Amino acid sequence: MKKIQTKLEDVFIIEPVVHSDHRGFFMECYNRKAFRDIGIHVNFIQDNHSLSKEAGTIRGLHYQLQDKAQTKLVRVLHGAVYDVVVDIRKGSPTFGEWVGVILSEENKRQILVPKGFAHGICTLVTNTQILYKVDEYYSPEHDRGIYWNDPQLNIQWPVTTPILSDKDKNQPLLDHADNNFFFK
To answer: What's the confidence (pLDDT) of residue 109?
Structure first.
């Protein structure tokens, strides 16, 4: 397992060891000991699986407030996404900065999204399936978000007219978002 630092502190790309032959491949997507050996100490408690039928679907930017904040380990089972992580920790030297990476069934990369970061994806192909682990249960009363196209963030999404849920169409800008994360 390989851990690659992004420009955002504590946001890592994870590359699993993939064993391929003429039959296909085998890989360990998650192994607690292997993660601890590379310095990641998260106790995941739930897996979530989503399907986006259309290319150009954006889901996000989502997070849960600090009392029920989630660390996520995100990977693509089928298809490809442009995955975006935004630092929303007030007082952070990288507050409002973002990183975007392509996760796909081909590259088998994963991204670790820690607490204090908003997360979103844009599907690059039809019928994209994502699987992600979380270390806290979903809490509707703590669920929050930021508008996908906030001009302050200036995220370089690969689409200009995405397919959005009503929820994501109506998220606030970062400056007006309900956010209780502070940089330590």
So the answer is: 98
Q: Domain 44-176, what fold? A: Jelly Rolls (2.60.120)
Token output for 63: 């997070």
- Rounded to two decimals, the pTM is 0.96
3-state helix, strand, coil in the chain (%, to 5): 10, 40, 50
Domain boundaries, the chain: 44-176
Among residues 21, 52, 175, 184, the alpha carbon closest in space to that of 114 is found at 184
Can you read off the two tokens belonging to residue 30?
A: 């998650």
Task: Convert the pLDDT of each residue in 51-93 to its tens digit.
Answer: 999 999 999 999 999 999 999 999 999 999 999 999 999 999 9
The active-site residue, picked from 63, 82, 132, 147, is 132
Active site residue: 62, 63, 82, 142, which one?
A: 62
> 82 an active-site residue?
no
Give the mean model confidence (pLDDT) for residues 155-183: 97
Active site annotation includes 30: no
